[in-house]
Design a protein that fits this description.
alpha/beta; Rossmann fold; eight-stranded mixed sheet
């Protein structure tokens, strides 16, 4: 397993460099399709103009980095940074396959990464900034990488109560694994920036200005043919599923998938992705 040097966010490094990183690589086409509306908004809000230089935080398999690289063109450049070696490797391979030389990727923790000062016109992220042990320090490090007057644009999940599609699997998985970790307000994780006040507090402490937040329920669509595979692999639900004895997995899978039946119509699961769209200036 690849790990980063000792420092903050070691729990996240271990998490994303083990099974979960490989699973997100495998599910990359499904995830990119599902999150496409949000990626489009992040690119639109963060686009600095043709020839611009953009930093993508928590880039995953590179969907937003590649999309932004196409927008800024060959005269610009995009750097995607992620803590997961499997995802960085996948993103690099995608850029190479597309012949997109303006997109490059680096393995690293954005909280401590030695970015060149004022090297970017913008920093963006699609669900990659909620996992820092010290978010104010991380956003401060990101701000120093962006030129004065440059922009920040990211999407972060709102609360679990507003995202039942994202929490249904964990609710069922908890009947098989009562010790499954629970949501803790403001703690690093999927819902680490769920509170608007927390976002404003963190970005202000990190030195960002002109902070704006917009609550948006983005349309989510997941083909029914992909539903079972998705909901039994990702996140805490996937962790529970993998730890169960083989004899119990079929029962668990049936219960988890059945719980998603209310979301399914016309051949797909359809749901709202309740998120914040956030912009700010360095």
């Amino acid at each position: 397993m690849t790990t980063l040097p000792d420092g903050p966010n070691q729990g996240q490094a271990q998490y994303w460099n083990a099974d979960n990183g490989a699973i997100w690589v495998r599910l990359q086409p499904v995830l990119d399709a599902m999150f496409q509306p949000i990626a489009d908004e992040v690119v639109r809000l963060g686009f600095p103009g043709e020839g611009g230089r953009v930093l993508d935080i928590g880039c995953g398999a590179g969907g937003v980095t590649l999309a932004m690289a196409r927008q800024v063109g060959p005269a610009g450049g995009c750097l995607g940074v992620d803590i997961s070696a499997p995802l960085v490797e996948a993103a690099t391979a995608r850029a190479k396959a597309e012949g997109l030389a303006s997109a490059r990727f680096a393995l690293g923790d954005a909280q401590t990464f030695a970015f060149e000062a004022a090297a970017f016109d913008a920093a963006v992220s699609r669900f990659g900034v909620m996992f820092f042990d010290d978010p104010a320090a991380a956003f401060g490090n990101i701000r120093r990488a962006v030129r004065p007057g440059g922009r920040l644009a990211f999407a972060a999940w709102r609360g679990p109560d507003e995202n039942p599609f994202m929490t249904t699997g964990a609710r069922i998985a908890r009947t098989f694994n009562p010790d499954l970790r629970r949501y803790e307000p403001d703690a690093p994780g999927q819902f680490g920036l769920a509170r608007e006040a927390r976002i404003l507090e963190v970005l202000s402490a990190a030195g960002w200005s002109d902070i704006e937040t917009q609550a948006w329920d983005a349309p989510g669509v997941l083909p029914e043919s992909q539903l079972a595979s998705f909901v039994t692999q990702v996140g805490a639900t996937g962790e529970t599923f993998r730890m169960l004895p083989e004899a119990q997995r079929a029962e668990a899978a049936q219960a988890i998938v059945a719980a998603y039946a209310p979301f399914v119509r016309e051949g797909a699961a359809r749901f709202d992705m309740a998120c914040w769209l956030v912009t700010a200036k360095a």
